[in-house]
Design brief:
The structure is a single chain. By secondary structure, the protein is of the alpha+beta class. It has a single domain, classed as 3-Layer(aba) Sandwich (Glutaredoxin). It has four helices and four strands, in the order αβαβαββα. The chain is globular. It starts with a helix and ends with a helix.
Length: 101
């Protein structure tokens, strides 16, 4: 939990993928997130949180559907979306928050 708090306090956008091992759409997100990482490089961090292993975080962020993606900047949730999204769309969302100070 402390590592999660440190992670989301970053001034750089941090995209957190709340997922479950048993979830088909979550598995579809894996190659999308890998493609996204190659697109955004060091402009953002990407983290994955297994909702079954981290029920406290899932409850805290009111995760009701997986995958749910939440973008944090300076510890604040600035964007969230449930379901599968393309790397292109995710890169555009991240881009909106990389230039804000």
């Amino acid at each position: 939990m402390e590592r999660f708090e440190e992670l989301i306090q970053s001034p750089f956008p941090v995209l957190v993928d709340f997922f479950a091992e048993w979830c088909g759409p979550c598995k579809a997100m894996k190659p999308i997130l890998e493609e996204l990482k190659s697109k955004v490089g060091d402009k953002a961090r990407i983290a994955k949180i297994d909702v079954d292993q981290h029920k406290d975080l899932a409850h805290r962020f009111k995760i009701q559907t997986v995958p749910t993606l939440i973008l944090f900047v300076n510890g604040e949730s600035v964007w969230r979306q449930s379901g599968v999204m393309s790397a292109k769309d995710l890169a555009e969302v991240i881009e909106q928050y990389t230039h804000k100070k």
